[in-house]
């Protein structure tokens, strides 16, 4: 992996682990567009699903990628510089395509600065609350103790402290959820959910629109 701190971006192979990225960035004051949670498929799987738990537009955080189409064609879209918009639309189409357009081999992610961070959890009431400030990541996970609401935020120390006060709860540790989803992270009535989807062990991706299927056949 390559960290370009001055330009605030990261180049990672698709198979790179999410917690591996967090560990690499520890102490740099830069943060990736995902919480400290390991999920099946690593960075490539995350991009294919359109991110996880974010409360912002995830596609804007993917600056470029190289992927292998189902026909074996190698496609490079976007670029490592924020101002480079070459292949911009193809990047946006790939993000959240659930593997229909292929598998990511390399991903360029935008990094965001922050001087403080907090990963918290509290019992989940069944609905996602509105918090001020809004945490960058919000998700729920059911385990043997019951359902928990998790929130992760980073930024200016005063803002992070306000988030702590608004959310309450207790400190959370980085999570490795791969053992909970040995067949991959699919959509369905499972133990994990965020503001977009609920996730189960395995399962089919959401049905794509016809125009998307035509694009997949062209690639």
UniProtKB/TrEMBL annotation:
Database matches in InterPro entries: DUF5639, FAD-bd_PCMH, FAD-bd_PCMH-like_sf, FAD-bd_PCMH_sub2
PROSITE patterns named in the record: FAD_PCMH (PS51387)
Coiled coil: none
Pfam family name, one: DUF5639
Signal peptide: none
Ranges for domain FAD-binding PCMH-type: 1-114
GO MF annotation list: FAD binding
The protein, known as: FAD linked oxidase domain protein
